[in-house]
Amino acid sequence: MKHYMCFDIGGTSVKFGVAGENGALLQKNEIPNVITQKGVDGLVDSLASVTEQYRQEYSLRGIAVSTAGVVDPEKGLILYAPKYFPGYPGTALGERLEIRCGLPCTVENDVNAAALGEYWLGAGQGAKSLFCITVGTGIGGCALLDGRVIHGAACFGGEAGLQHITPECTWEEMASTRALIRNVAAAKGIPETALDGRKIFALAQSGDEEAAAAIARQMDDLATGIANICYILNPERIIVGGGIAAQEAYLYPLLDIALREKLFPLVYGKLTLRFAALQNDAGMLGALYNFLMRQ
To answer: Is the pTM of this model over 0.85?
Structure first.
Protein backbone atom coordinates (compact mmCIF):
# COMPACT_ATOMS: atom_id res chain seq x y z
CA MET A 1 0.00 0.00 0.00
CA LYS A 2 1.15 3.55 -0.77
CA HIS A 3 1.47 5.87 2.23
CA TYR A 4 1.16 9.64 2.52
CA MET A 5 1.97 12.23 5.19
CA CYS A 6 -1.07 14.38 5.99
CA PHE A 7 -1.15 17.69 7.90
CA ASP A 8 -4.01 19.92 9.05
CA ILE A 9 -2.58 23.25 10.23
CA GLY A 10 -4.80 25.15 12.65
CA GLY A 11 -4.27 28.25 14.74
CA THR A 12 -2.97 26.53 17.87
CA SER A 13 -2.14 22.98 16.77
CA VAL A 14 -1.13 20.91 13.78
CA LYS A 15 -2.90 17.58 13.35
CA PHE A 16 -0.95 15.00 11.40
CA GLY A 17 -1.25 11.42 10.29
CA VAL A 18 0.00 8.74 7.93
CA ALA A 19 -2.70 7.47 5.58
CA GLY A 20 -3.04 4.86 2.91
CA GLU A 21 -4.37 5.74 -0.52
CA ASN A 22 -7.80 4.48 0.59
CA GLY A 23 -7.97 7.13 3.32
CA ALA A 24 -7.31 4.79 6.23
CA LEU A 25 -5.32 6.67 8.88
CA LEU A 26 -2.63 4.35 10.23
CA GLN A 27 -1.11 6.88 12.63
CA LYS A 28 -2.34 10.24 13.89
CA ASN A 29 -1.34 12.78 16.49
CA GLU A 30 -0.87 16.52 16.88
CA ILE A 31 1.80 19.04 17.81
CA PRO A 32 1.61 22.73 18.74
CA ASN A 33 1.64 25.26 15.93
CA VAL A 34 4.83 27.18 16.67
CA ILE A 35 4.39 29.95 14.09
CA THR A 36 3.71 32.68 16.68
CA GLN A 37 6.89 31.78 18.60
CA LYS A 38 9.26 30.61 15.84
CA GLY A 39 7.79 32.06 12.66
CA VAL A 40 7.24 30.35 9.32
CA ASP A 41 10.68 28.74 9.43
CA GLY A 42 9.83 27.09 12.73
CA LEU A 43 6.52 25.81 11.37
CA VAL A 44 8.19 24.35 8.27
CA ASP A 45 10.90 22.79 10.45
CA SER A 46 8.26 21.09 12.62
CA LEU A 47 6.39 19.68 9.60
CA ALA A 48 9.63 18.43 8.04
CA SER A 49 10.72 16.87 11.33
CA VAL A 50 7.48 14.91 11.68
CA THR A 51 7.73 13.79 8.06
CA GLU A 52 11.28 12.55 8.52
CA GLN A 53 10.27 10.72 11.68
CA TYR A 54 7.59 8.73 9.87
CA ARG A 55 9.81 8.06 6.85
CA GLN A 56 11.72 5.74 9.14
CA GLU A 57 8.62 3.53 9.34
CA TYR A 58 6.77 4.14 6.05
CA SER A 59 7.80 4.60 2.43
CA LEU A 60 6.04 7.93 1.98
CA ARG A 61 4.91 8.97 -1.50
CA GLY A 62 3.95 12.56 -0.78
CA ILE A 63 2.82 15.27 1.65
CA ALA A 64 -0.77 16.51 1.75
CA VAL A 65 -1.43 19.75 3.62
CA SER A 66 -4.62 21.45 4.81
CA THR A 67 -4.11 24.88 6.33
CA ALA A 68 -5.91 27.93 7.65
CA GLY A 69 -5.73 30.88 5.29
CA VAL A 70 -6.45 31.58 1.63
CA VAL A 71 -4.41 29.24 -0.57
CA ASP A 72 -3.51 29.13 -4.25
CA PRO A 73 -3.64 25.33 -4.62
CA GLU A 74 -1.94 25.34 -8.00
CA LYS A 75 1.19 26.89 -6.49
CA GLY A 76 0.91 25.73 -2.88
CA LEU A 77 1.12 29.42 -1.97
CA ILE A 78 -0.43 31.15 1.06
CA LEU A 79 -2.22 34.29 -0.21
CA TYR A 80 -3.80 35.49 3.03
CA ALA A 81 -3.80 34.34 6.65
CA PRO A 82 -5.26 35.43 9.99
CA LYS A 83 -3.20 37.71 12.22
CA TYR A 84 -2.21 34.78 14.45
CA PHE A 85 -0.18 33.41 11.49
CA PRO A 86 2.56 36.08 11.39
CA GLY A 87 4.58 36.07 8.19
CA TYR A 88 2.45 33.35 6.59
CA PRO A 89 1.08 35.30 3.58
CA GLY A 90 3.43 34.90 0.63
CA THR A 91 4.84 31.60 1.92
CA ALA A 92 5.34 29.01 -0.82
CA LEU A 93 4.56 26.24 1.63
CA GLY A 94 4.30 23.44 -0.90
CA GLU A 95 7.63 24.30 -2.53
CA ARG A 96 9.42 24.67 0.80
CA LEU A 97 8.25 21.26 2.01
CA GLU A 98 9.14 19.64 -1.31
CA ILE A 99 12.69 21.03 -1.07
CA ARG A 100 13.09 20.07 2.60
CA CYS A 101 11.65 16.57 2.33
CA GLY A 102 12.24 15.59 -1.30
CA LEU A 103 8.58 14.61 -1.70
CA PRO A 104 5.75 16.05 -3.81
CA CYS A 105 3.46 18.29 -1.77
CA THR A 106 0.02 19.83 -2.26
CA VAL A 107 -1.59 22.54 -0.14
CA GLU A 108 -5.29 23.42 0.22
CA ASN A 109 -7.37 25.68 2.45
CA ASP A 110 -8.67 23.91 5.57
CA VAL A 111 -12.39 24.34 4.90
CA ASN A 112 -11.94 23.26 1.28
CA ALA A 113 -10.03 20.23 2.50
CA ALA A 114 -12.75 19.37 5.01
CA ALA A 115 -15.34 19.56 2.23
CA LEU A 116 -13.22 17.28 0.03
CA GLY A 117 -12.82 14.82 2.89
CA GLU A 118 -16.57 14.69 3.47
CA TYR A 119 -17.18 14.29 -0.26
CA TRP A 120 -14.72 11.39 -0.45
CA LEU A 121 -15.42 9.47 2.74
CA GLY A 122 -18.08 11.27 4.76
CA ALA A 123 -21.40 13.08 4.59
CA GLY A 124 -20.90 14.24 1.00
CA GLN A 125 -20.53 10.83 -0.62
CA GLY A 126 -22.56 10.50 -3.81
CA ALA A 127 -23.41 14.22 -4.12
CA LYS A 128 -22.77 15.84 -7.49
CA SER A 129 -22.96 19.32 -5.97
CA LEU A 130 -22.58 20.37 -2.35
CA PHE A 131 -21.77 23.28 -0.12
CA CYS A 132 -19.95 22.65 3.15
CA ILE A 133 -19.92 25.17 6.00
CA THR A 134 -17.87 25.05 9.18
CA VAL A 135 -19.25 26.91 12.17
CA GLY A 136 -16.89 27.97 14.93
CA THR A 137 -15.37 31.32 15.88
CA GLY A 138 -16.34 32.33 12.35
CA ILE A 139 -18.08 30.61 9.44
CA GLY A 140 -16.12 29.09 6.58
CA GLY A 141 -17.49 27.61 3.39
CA CYS A 142 -16.67 25.62 0.28
CA ALA A 143 -18.59 24.81 -2.89
CA LEU A 144 -17.90 21.53 -4.69
CA LEU A 145 -19.08 20.49 -8.13
CA ASP A 146 -18.28 16.96 -9.30
CA GLY A 147 -15.78 16.67 -6.46
CA ARG A 148 -13.85 19.78 -7.42
CA VAL A 149 -13.54 22.96 -5.38
CA ILE A 150 -14.87 26.15 -6.95
CA HIS A 151 -11.94 28.35 -5.97
CA GLY A 152 -12.89 31.54 -7.80
CA ALA A 153 -10.65 34.07 -9.51
CA ALA A 154 -8.82 35.08 -6.31
CA CYS A 155 -9.04 31.66 -4.59
CA PHE A 156 -11.62 33.26 -2.28
CA GLY A 157 -14.60 31.22 -3.41
CA GLY A 158 -16.88 29.85 -0.71
CA GLU A 159 -16.09 32.47 1.97
CA ALA A 160 -19.79 32.69 2.77
CA GLY A 161 -19.27 33.85 6.35
CA LEU A 162 -18.35 37.28 4.97
CA GLN A 163 -21.70 37.80 3.21
CA HIS A 164 -23.69 40.70 4.67
CA ILE A 165 -27.04 39.59 6.08
CA THR A 166 -27.78 43.19 7.10
CA PRO A 167 -25.90 46.35 6.04
CA GLU A 168 -24.06 46.30 9.37
CA CYS A 169 -23.61 42.59 10.03
CA THR A 170 -21.97 39.66 8.27
CA TRP A 171 -23.26 36.10 8.50
CA GLU A 172 -20.49 34.95 10.81
CA GLU A 173 -21.09 37.92 13.10
CA MET A 174 -24.70 36.75 13.44
CA ALA A 175 -24.56 32.94 13.34
CA SER A 176 -21.15 31.76 14.54
CA THR A 177 -20.46 30.13 17.90
CA ARG A 178 -18.91 33.44 18.97
CA ALA A 179 -22.27 35.13 18.30
CA LEU A 180 -24.09 32.42 20.26
CA ILE A 181 -21.82 32.98 23.26
CA ARG A 182 -22.30 36.75 23.03
CA ASN A 183 -26.10 36.42 22.93
CA VAL A 184 -26.34 34.01 25.87
CA ALA A 185 -23.94 36.10 27.95
CA ALA A 186 -26.00 39.24 27.26
CA ALA A 187 -29.25 37.46 28.15
CA LYS A 188 -27.81 36.23 31.46
CA GLY A 189 -25.81 39.36 32.27
CA ILE A 190 -22.57 37.39 32.68
CA PRO A 191 -19.11 37.71 31.04
CA GLU A 192 -18.63 35.94 27.70
CA THR A 193 -15.54 34.30 29.20
CA ALA A 194 -17.81 32.31 31.53
CA LEU A 195 -19.32 30.43 28.58
CA ASP A 196 -18.37 28.25 25.65
CA GLY A 197 -20.39 26.25 23.13
CA ARG A 198 -20.42 23.05 25.16
CA LYS A 199 -21.66 24.82 28.28
CA ILE A 200 -24.45 26.52 26.35
CA PHE A 201 -25.71 23.26 24.84
CA ALA A 202 -25.54 21.58 28.24
CA LEU A 203 -27.66 24.41 29.67
CA ALA A 204 -30.20 24.15 26.85
CA GLN A 205 -30.51 20.39 27.22
CA SER A 206 -31.11 20.80 30.95
CA GLY A 207 -34.03 23.17 30.29
CA ASP A 208 -32.40 26.61 30.37
CA GLU A 209 -34.78 28.82 28.37
CA GLU A 210 -32.25 31.58 27.58
CA ALA A 211 -29.73 29.11 26.17
CA ALA A 212 -32.40 27.28 24.17
CA ALA A 213 -33.74 30.56 22.74
CA ALA A 214 -30.24 31.68 21.71
CA ILE A 215 -29.57 28.37 19.96
CA ALA A 216 -32.89 28.59 18.12
CA ARG A 217 -31.96 32.11 17.03
CA GLN A 218 -28.54 30.90 15.86
CA MET A 219 -30.15 28.16 13.75
CA ASP A 220 -32.56 30.67 12.21
CA ASP A 221 -29.66 32.99 11.36
CA LEU A 222 -27.67 30.04 10.04
CA ALA A 223 -30.61 29.05 7.84
CA THR A 224 -30.77 32.59 6.41
CA GLY A 225 -27.22 32.35 5.09
CA ILE A 226 -27.69 28.79 3.84
CA ALA A 227 -30.85 29.87 2.01
CA ASN A 228 -28.85 32.60 0.23
CA ILE A 229 -26.32 29.97 -0.84
CA CYS A 230 -29.09 27.68 -2.06
CA TYR A 231 -30.67 30.41 -4.17
CA ILE A 232 -27.32 31.20 -5.82
CA LEU A 233 -25.83 27.72 -6.26
CA ASN A 234 -28.79 25.37 -5.72
CA PRO A 235 -26.61 22.51 -4.38
CA GLU A 236 -28.13 19.11 -3.80
CA ARG A 237 -26.47 18.81 -0.40
CA ILE A 238 -25.54 21.14 2.47
CA ILE A 239 -23.02 19.83 5.01
CA VAL A 240 -22.70 21.53 8.39
CA GLY A 241 -19.37 21.03 10.14
CA GLY A 242 -17.27 22.59 12.86
CA GLY A 243 -17.77 22.19 16.58
CA ILE A 244 -21.58 22.28 16.34
CA ALA A 245 -21.63 19.08 14.29
CA ALA A 246 -21.35 17.17 17.58
CA GLN A 247 -24.80 18.53 18.49
CA GLU A 248 -26.55 17.09 15.42
CA ALA A 249 -29.39 15.43 17.35
CA TYR A 250 -30.34 18.73 18.98
CA LEU A 251 -29.71 21.03 16.01
CA TYR A 252 -30.91 19.13 12.96
CA PRO A 253 -34.65 19.60 13.62
CA LEU A 254 -34.23 23.32 14.34
CA LEU A 255 -32.14 23.97 11.23
CA ASP A 256 -34.29 21.80 8.98
CA ILE A 257 -37.50 23.57 10.01
CA ALA A 258 -35.88 26.98 9.47
CA LEU A 259 -34.66 25.99 6.01
CA ARG A 260 -38.08 24.67 5.04
CA GLU A 261 -39.58 28.04 5.99
CA LYS A 262 -36.98 30.07 4.06
CA LEU A 263 -36.71 28.06 0.83
CA PHE A 264 -39.13 27.62 -2.04
CA PRO A 265 -40.66 24.14 -1.82
CA LEU A 266 -38.99 23.10 -5.10
CA VAL A 267 -35.54 24.09 -3.78
CA TYR A 268 -36.10 22.57 -0.33
CA GLY A 269 -37.41 19.36 -1.87
CA LYS A 270 -34.19 18.82 -3.81
CA LEU A 271 -31.91 19.65 -0.89
CA THR A 272 -30.39 17.18 1.56
CA LEU A 273 -29.06 18.53 4.87
CA ARG A 274 -26.27 16.58 6.52
CA PHE A 275 -23.94 17.15 9.45
CA ALA A 276 -20.22 16.42 8.97
CA ALA A 277 -19.20 12.82 9.67
CA LEU A 278 -15.39 12.83 9.75
CA GLN A 279 -14.92 15.17 12.73
CA ASN A 280 -11.26 16.05 13.37
CA ASP A 281 -9.96 13.86 10.52
CA ALA A 282 -11.79 15.70 7.74
CA GLY A 283 -8.98 18.17 6.99
CA MET A 284 -6.27 15.52 6.75
CA LEU A 285 -8.38 13.19 4.63
CA GLY A 286 -9.46 16.03 2.35
CA ALA A 287 -5.85 17.11 1.97
CA LEU A 288 -5.01 13.56 0.90
CA TYR A 289 -7.89 13.47 -1.58
CA ASN A 290 -6.66 16.77 -3.02
CA PHE A 291 -3.15 15.32 -3.35
CA LEU A 292 -4.36 12.16 -5.09
CA MET A 293 -6.55 14.11 -7.53
CA ARG A 294 -3.65 16.36 -8.50
CA GLN A 295 -1.16 13.60 -9.31
So the answer is: yes
